[in-house]
Amino acid sequence: MSGLVIGAAVGALAGLLFAPAPGDETREKLTEKTKELSDDLSEKFDNLKETVNEVLEDVKKTGTEVLEDVKKATKKTAPEA
Fold first, then answer.
1. 3-class SS at 80?
2. Are 32 and 75 in contact (CB under 8 A)?
3. What's the sign of the alpha-carbon dihedral 21, 25, 30, 36?
4. Which end of the chain is more exposed for a tag (fewer CB within 10 A), N or C?
């Protein structure tokens, strides 16, 4: 995914630099494209962070459930003192 974003950024930059346009216009286009790419990358990072948090919560919940099951099984099989 990051390769796709980097490739798009390089392609956009190359297209702007080689297009026949005045310097001011080119700089303005570069600024716009940089902002767009930055916003897109930020959104993708936020989505990734959210997904990782969801996975961690699932792992934590599953780990707690497994620990409780082990405790119950240990109590059932442990000899009475």
1. coil
2. no
3. negative
4. C
- Res 18: pLDDT: 74
Question: pLDDT tens digit string along 57-70?
Answer: 999 999 999 989 88
Neighbours of 16 (CB within 10 A): 17
- Rounded Cα distance between 21 and 51, Å, is 42
Domain segments of the chain: what residues? Answer: 2-77
CA-based nearest residue to 16, from 2, 33, 3: 33
| DSSP character string of 30-45 | HHHHHHHHHHHHHHHH
Tell me the C-alpha distance between 15 and 37, whole Å: 15
